[in-house]
Design brief:
With 297 residues, this protein is of the alpha/beta class. It has helices spanning 15-21, 39-51, 66-79, 98-108, 163-166, 178-188, 225-242, 247-267, 271-286; strands spanning 3-9, 29-34, 55-59, 84-89, 93-94, 115-124, 130-131, 145-148, 156-159, 192-203, 209-213, 216-220. The longest helix is centred in the C-terminal third of the chain and has 21 residues, at 247-267. The termini are far apart.
C-alpha cells in the first residue's frame, strides 16, 4: 500500500527534524505544508529537504488554516497516485512500526471497504499516559482494533478514495474541530473509524496542567484565546449541522464545551480574554460567520 505523510507546520522548532525522520522507514513520501511561517522556517525546512529526497515542502503565502493546508497536501498526494495519507501536527512523533501496526489491523478487519481511517492511541510526551479516542465499544484483547467515534488529525491514517464520496476537510472551520467534523461526515455515510490498540503516537495537547476539582483531577490545556474562539464557534457549527443526525455525539461535544468553559474560569490565565473569545465564537457560530477570524483576540 502506498502511503504519503502530510505534516502541517506553523513556526516549527528543530523538533520537527526528528519527527520527520521517524517517518522515513514507514511511508513512501513526506510532504510538509507550511502555513505561512516565513523566511526563518523556510531555512529550517529547506535543510531537511536537502538531506532527505523523500521530503518536499509546500509553502503557503500566509496562514490559511489547518483544513486548507490538509486539503492541499491530500490533493497533492492523491494526484501523485497514493492510496493513503497519514496526517500529523508538527510536534507529534510516530513510534517505530506504528503505521505497519495500523495496516496489519486494517488487514484483519472483515469489511475493509467501510473503513475511512485508522488512528493510533496517544502517549503524552510529558506524563507518559496513553489515552484513547472516544470508542463505540471498549478495546478487546482478542482484536487489534476497536471502532471509534472520532480521530484526531495527528496520526490519522486516511484512505484517499473516501474523499471522493465524503469530501475534503471543511475549510470554513479554519482550525479546531476540523478532524471531528470530517469524522462525523464519514460516520454519517456508514464508514468506520478504527483505533488500533498497539499503535502509539507521541503527542501533547496544548500546555496541560492538572488541577484538583472537588473529587476529580481535571486538565487545563491552556490554549490561547483564539483557539478557544475557534473551538466554540466551530462546535456551534457542528451542532447546527449534525444535532439530528448524531445526537449522542453532539451531546458529548457540548459537554466538552461546558467543561472547557468551567476549567478556563477556574484555572487558566487570561480568563477574561478567553471567555470573551468563547462568547464571540458562540455568537459567530450561531450567525454562521465562518472562515478566518479577523478580530484581535
Amino acid at each position: 500500500m502506498s502511503i504519503c505523510a502530510i505534516i502541517i507546520s506553523y513556526h516549527p522548532d528543530n523538533e520537527i527534524i526528528e519527527n520527520v525522520k521517524a517517518l522515513f522507514n514507514q511511508v513512501d513520501e513526506v510532504i510538509i505544508v507550511d502555513n505561512g511561517s516565513g523566511f526563518s522556517t523556510s531555512i529550517l525546512l529547506d535543510s531537511i529537504v536537502k538531506q532527505h529526497p523523500k521530503v518536499s515542502v509546500i509553502y503557503l503565502p500566509e496562514n490559511l488554516g489547518i483544513a486548507t493546508a490538509l486539503n492541499i497536501g491530500a490533493k497533492k498526494a492523491k494526484a501523485n497516485g497514493y492510496e493513503w495519507i497519514i496526517t500529523f501536527d508538527q510536534d507529534s512523533q510516530a513510534t517505530p512500526c506504528m503505521i505497519e501496526t495500523m495496516l496489519q489491523a486494517y488487514d484483519k478487519y472483515p469489511q475493509k471497504e467501510k473503513v475511512s481511517s485508522l488512528s493510533p492511541r496517544y502517549k503524552d510526551k510529558e506524563t507518559g499516559v496513553i489515552r484513547s479516542s472516544q470508542l463505540i465499544a471498549p478495546l478487546l484483547e482478542t482484536l487489534p482494533y476497536a471502532e471509534a467515534l472520532e480521530a484526531m488529525t495527528s496520526g490519522n491514517l486516511l484512505k484517499l478514495s473516501v474523499f471522493d464520496s465524503v469530501g475534503f476537510f471543511n475549510e470554513a472551520l479554519f482550525i479546531d474541530c476540523v478532524d471531528y467534523e470530517y469524522c462525523l461526515r464519514c460516520i454519517s455515510q456508514g464508514y468506520k473509524i478504527l483505533e488500533v490498540n498497539n499503535a502509539v503516537l507521541m503527542h501533547s495537547v496544548g500546555f496541560p496542567v492538572q488541577h484538583q476539582l472537588l473529587w476529580r483531577i481535571v486538565t487545563a490545556n491552556n490554549h490561547s484565546a483564539i483557539r478557544r474562539y475557534y473551538f466554540a464557534r466551530n462546535s456551534v457549527y457542528i451542532y447546527k449541522r449534525f444535532a439530528f443526525k448524531k445526537p449522542l455525539l453532539i451531546k458529548k461535544n457540548a459537554c466538552d464545551l461546558v467543561k472547557m468553559i468551567i476549567i478556563v474560569m477556574l484555572f487558566e490565565a487570561d480568563r477574561k480574554k478567553k471567555l470573551t473569545a468563547i462568547f464571540r465564537g458562540l455568537i459567530d457560530g450561531l450567525f454562521g460567520r465562518m472562515g478566518k477570524c479577523n478580530a484581535s483576540l
